[in-house]
Write a structure and sequence with these properties.
With 559 residues, this protein is α+β, with helices and mostly antiparallel strands. It has eleven helices and 19 strands. Strands 2-1-10-5-6 form a five-stranded mixed sheet. Strands 3, 4, 7, 8 and 9 form a five-stranded antiparallel sheet that branches.
Amino acid sequence: MKKKPTILTGALIGGLLSLPLMALSFLGSVLIGLPFFPAFVFAFLRDRTPGEIVPRIVGVMSSSIISLNIGRVDTVAKTVEEIISLLTVFGIGLVAGAIIFAILNAALKHGSPLLTGIIAGAAFGLVMTLIQASYPGLFLADMAFMVIWTFALFMLYGLALSYIYHTLRFSIGAAAETADDTSASVESLDRRQFLIRVGTGAAVITAVGAGVGALLSRTDQIVSTAAAPTLTPDAMPEALATSTPAQRMAGGEFIPASGTRPEITPVAEHYRIDISTIIPQIPAEGYILPFTSRISADGVERTIAELTLDQIRSNYEPISAVVTMSCISNDVGGDLISTLEWTGARMSDILTGMEIPAEATHLRITAADGFDEFVSLEMINSDERIMLAYDWGGEPLIPKHGFPLRIHIPNHYGMKQPKWITGMAFVAADTGGYWVRRGWDAQAIAKATSVIDTAAVDDRFQDESGQIYVPIGGIAWAGDRGVSRVQVRVDEGDWADAALKAPLSDRAWILWRYDFPFTEGNHDLEVRCEESDGTPQIEQQAGTFPDGASGYDWKRVAV
C-alpha cells in the first residue's frame, strides 16, 4: 500500500511554496504595477477586524517602538506591517497545504491529483481576485490583466502542491514497494531528498524574484534620528565661551538650541501614517476627481461635477500656508508631527457654482487606499483656509505623501485629512470615517503639545560668575490656536519662561529655547505651553486613543 503524505508534510510544503509565490507577485508589482497580494490580504483582514482592536494594536506598536528606541515610528511601523502581511500569507500557506493534502489523502485512490490542484488554485485565485478588486487604487495594471495574473499565480501554486503530493505518494512510494527489505529506509531517504530539493527550489525562486524586484523598485530613503546628547563631567572643556542668556539672545534674534528640529520639515522626512502598506500610484494623465451624490428619491448616484488635476491647478486662485500636521496616534514627544508649506485651491472656491443637493450637509472623501472621511459643508464655507492641496514645499505632491491631491483642514489631526483622494460625494449626514468607525474621536481636534528636542551640550556657555548654561530647545503647537507661552522646569522646581520664535503661520509650530543653568548630576527637564488665549496644555497623562495623547514631555540629562 502506498504511504500517504502526512498533513504536517502538506503544511510544510504549502508554507514553502507561498514564499516563491510572494516573490513572483512582488516582481510583477515592481515590473508592471500588478498587485502585491500579501498587502491586499493584510488590508482585507485589517479592514474587517471589528471594534477597537486595530487602534489598540496601533497604540501598542507605537509605544513599543518609542520605548525600544528602534527608529522613527512611521518607518518602523510600516516595516512591521509589511512583515505581518508576509507572515500572514505564510500562515495561510501552511493551512492551505495541510487542507489540500488532507483532501487528497481522503479522496484520492489512484491516478493524478492535478485536477484537485487546479481546482484549489482556481479557488484561491478567485478569492484573491475579489480581494484585490476591492482596492483598485492600489495597483496600476489593467483589471483584466490583474485577473489573469492572479489566477495564473495561484493555479501554479495548486499545481505545484498536487505535483509534490503525487511524487511523494505515488512515485517514491511505488518505487519503494518494488525494493527489497530496506524499502522503508530507502523511501524515507528518497522523501527527505525530494523535500530538500523542493525547499531549495522554493528558496532560489524566492531569492531571485525578491532580489530582482528589490533592485528594480524605488526605495524611500531611511531617515534616522539620533538621541539627544548627554553631558558628563568628563566631557567638560577647559574653557567655555563667556556670556549670559540675555546676551545670547541680544537684539531680539532667536537662536535655536543646536539639535532643535528644522522649522520646516524636508519633504523626504515628513511623517507618513496611513492604512496602506502599498503607496498608491495614481497617474496624473487621465486623473479626474468626481463630485457625486445619491441624495434623491431613487438613490441613484449622480455626477455633479468632474475636475481634472490641471483644472484644479489652473481654474482656482492658489493659496499657500505653512502647516503643522500631527497624527492622532502621536505619543507625547513623538515624531509623528511635521511642518511644511502647503499649496492648493480653496475648497469653498471649488464648490462654488456646483448644484449641491439641498439636503447635503457633508462631503464624504474617498481615497485610493480605501480610506474615507467626512468634512461638513458648513465648515468648508466658513473657513477659507481649508484647501485641496496639490503642492508641498513648492513642488507637486509625491506619491508617498498623497499625489495627486490631499485635503488640509486646520486644527485637526491627520486622521481627518485624507490623501490620494479619488472621489467626493455629497451626503446628508456624517456617518463616521474610517478611523471614527473604529473608535477614534469623531472631532479629532489637535491638542496643545510641547516637546523637548535637545539639550545642546556642545553649545554650553558660562556667565561672568562661572555659572554654566546648556541651551535646551524644542517645539510647541496648538493646532490653529497659537502658542503664547512655553515654560521649562528642572527637577520639579519653579517653572521658567522660554524664549519663543514667531511662528511662520497661524497653523505652524513655534520653536522655543531655554538656557538651563545646571550643576553636576542627573536632572529631569519638563516642558509645558499655553495657547494664545491662556489655555494651559493638559497636564494629565493620557494615551493616544481615542482623542490624542496629553501630558508633559520630559527628558533626563546627565551633567
